[in-house]
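testing teh design pipeline on a random one, pls ignore if ur not involved
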């Protein structure tokens, strides 16, 4: 199962003792959807919809959005595609949506926060997603980026329900969302950890700034502990909690994430085979032991070294 000896991916993954892990792809446009399907991905854990909006002076029409989303959904033959609503703001400002001149744009009006002043833009996007899902008979789950509170969650879930999008979830990208996951997941059907932003906001270190790169790693025990807390919040309600940040694509970290309670990993398609191979070499109990040893370290470097050394011992 999982990876073959030629390093290709057959669409399934499991630990050595047969515990299934959903391995799916991140895609950002129709071309990436083609690449993901060719790499063997049977579904999408993060469809970033920004491509449809960026570089435009005005909002795309519902019809334009439907066409763009259908081009991605069509590649997955009715299988699950997790569509993320527009994550504008911060480094991706949009003239018709995000405020000018924010002093700290990464802490400003981005992601779901744009829906406070512009609920109509979210509403039209949800309408387009629902129409595209129906036209392609796709299993579409919808999730909101940059969620921090239970109120944002329940309002998003209600907005989705108005379009018959019944599987609505949230990204966990802020420490607040991770800490409050048990409340967010009372309403949300699932959660997906955006570890790129979760690391940025936990470490207070710009994810694109070379000068703070040493801080910006998901191996930071503070980040791993928030992953653990978020997964516990999912367990309370029996909800799946995945990872769709870069962390999911690291073959050494993937077993740790599974050991922390993560149920799906979504990544760039070329990483699928390597992560499936890494998971097939460890049992779930070993994943849990790796997670415990990483959490018990004071530094990112020590956490990574402990996992690397333990993995050698398992062979
Ligand atoms: C993340 O923050 O980890 C994530 C998956 O979202 P993006 O990289 O698009 O911000
Ligand atoms: Mg993010």
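output:
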């Amino acid at each position: 199962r999982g990876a073959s000896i030629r390093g290709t991916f057959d669409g399934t993954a499991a630990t050595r003792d047969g515990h299934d892990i959903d391995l799916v792809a991140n895609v950002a446009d129709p071309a990436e959807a083609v690449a993901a399907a060719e790499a063997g991905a049977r579904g999408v854990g993060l469809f970033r919809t920004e491509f449809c909006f960026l570089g435009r002076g005005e909002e795309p029409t519902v019809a334009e959005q439907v066409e763009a989303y259908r081009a991605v959904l069509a590649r997955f033959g009715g299988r699950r595609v997790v569509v993320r609503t527009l994550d504008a703001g911060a480094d991706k400002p949009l003239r018709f949506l995000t405020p000018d001149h924010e002093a700290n744009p990464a802490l400003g009006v981005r992601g779901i926060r744009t829906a406070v002043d512009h609920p109509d833009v979210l509403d039209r996007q949800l309408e387009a997603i629902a129409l595209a899902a129906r036209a392609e008979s796709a299993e579409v789950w919808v999730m909101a980026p940059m969620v921090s509170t239970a109120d944002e969650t329940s309002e998003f879930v209600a907005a989705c329900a108005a379009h018959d999008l019944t599987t609505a979830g949230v990204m966990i990208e802020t420490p607040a969302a991770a800490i409050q996951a048990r409340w967010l997941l009372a309403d949300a059907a699932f959660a997906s950890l955006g570890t790129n932003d979760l690391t940025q906001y936990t470490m207070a270190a710009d994810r694109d700034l070379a000068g703070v790169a040493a801080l910006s790693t998901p191996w930071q025990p503070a980040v791993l502990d928030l992953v653990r807390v978020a997964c516990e919040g999912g367990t309370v309600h029996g909800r799946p909690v995945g990872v769709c940040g870069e962390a999911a694509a690291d073959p050494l970290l993937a077993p740790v994430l599974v050991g922390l309670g993560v149920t799906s990993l979504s990544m760039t398609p070329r990483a699928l085979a390597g992560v499936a191979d890494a998971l097939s070499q460890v049992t779930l109990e070993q994943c849990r032991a790796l997670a415990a040893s990483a959490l018990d370290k004071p530094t990112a470097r020590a956490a990574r070294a402990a996992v690397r050394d333990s993995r050698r011992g398992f062979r």
